[in-house]
Amino acid sequence: MEENLEILFDAQAIEQKVAELAGRISQDYAGKDLVLICILKGAAIFAADLSRHLTIPVTLDFVHLSSYGSAMVSSRTVTVKKDIDIDIRGKQVLLVDGIIDTGNTVTFLIERCRERGSAGIKVVTLLDKHSRRTAAVPVDYRGFEIPDVFVVGYGMDCREKYRNLPYIAVLKNDFDTDRGGSMP
Ligand code: IMP
Ligand code: MG
Questions:
Q1: Residue nearest (by alpha carbon) to ligand 1 atom 12
Q2: Could you name the CATH architecture of 12-147?
Q3: Which phi and psi angles does 114 have, rounded to 5°?
Q4: Counting atoms of ligand 1 from 1, which one is nearest the CA of 101?
Q5: pTM for this prediction
Q6: Cα(21) to centroid of ligand 2, in Å?
Q7: Residues 6+ positions from 105 with CB-CB distance below 8 Å
Q8: Rounded to the nearest whole angstrom, what is the distance from the C-alpha of residue 160 to the centroid of ligand 2?
Q9: What is the dihedral of CA 14, 163, 71, 38, to 10 degrees?
């Protein structure tokens, strides 16, 4: 392992948490049609694992967003690189994020789902950096709350590296992490 990485959650801890979240979601949405919307690229691996643990039928869609401006400012501009394809009018939607930081991205997406006439919108995130929140986000399912550290692995990157790590690690001694730059 690279010396600048310090494991925060190993593969087993992640697997356990994903199964637990999926159990709760399957229970809560029993008998309903659920659309999972995965926020690329960071949530890709989480969404893949989470969806395979669900015991209810789901439809899967993906969005890819870009965010510009300072990470500290809640009004960062979000642009859509790949939009929602599925017709979500009247449907229950669950937004799947890998990490919620300021909350800006997911807030944008909640609004977009509302505009498209979704009947209900909930949010699941594996990681929650709650102390960095600038926008009030209703997080319905939270894997782990983490402090204000920069993490990589299990989908999360630093300049597109480390996404394939099976664990989540804190990236140390990197003064140019990309949380304010081009996202997922
Ligand atoms: P926000 O909630 O709009 O501020 O942005 C969340 C996005 O920023 C996430 O989906 C990640 O792509 C990225 N991000 C924030 N914190 C981290 C981190 O610690 N590691 C990797 N990506 C991060
Ligand atoms: Mg990134």
A1: 184
A2: 3-Layer(aba) Sandwich (3.40)
A3: -60, -50
A4: 2
A5: 0.93
A6: 23
A7: 39, 65, 67, 78, 97, 183
A8: 7
A9: -70
Banded pLDDT at 181 (limits 50, 70, 90):
very low
103 C-beta closer than 6 A to ligand 1: yes
Beta partners for residue 127, in sequence order: 99, 144
Reported as a single tens digit per residue, the pLDDT across 85-138 is 999 999 999 999 999 999 999 999 999 999 999 999 999 999 999 999 988 999
How close is the Cα of 124 to the center of ligand 1, in Å?
A: 14
Per-domain boundaries in the chain: 12-147
pLDDT digits (tens, 9 = 90+) for 4-59: 999 999 999 999 999 999 999 999 999 999 999 999 999 999 999 999 999 999 99
Measured at the CA of 31, the angle between CA 139 and CA 140, to 5 degrees, comes to 5
The phi, psi pair for 141, rounded to 5°, reads: -130, 120
Q: Is 66 helix (H, G, I), strand (E, B) or coil?
A: strand
For residue 101, indicate whether it is catalytic.
yes
For ligand 1, atom 23, which residue shows the shortest CA distance?
179
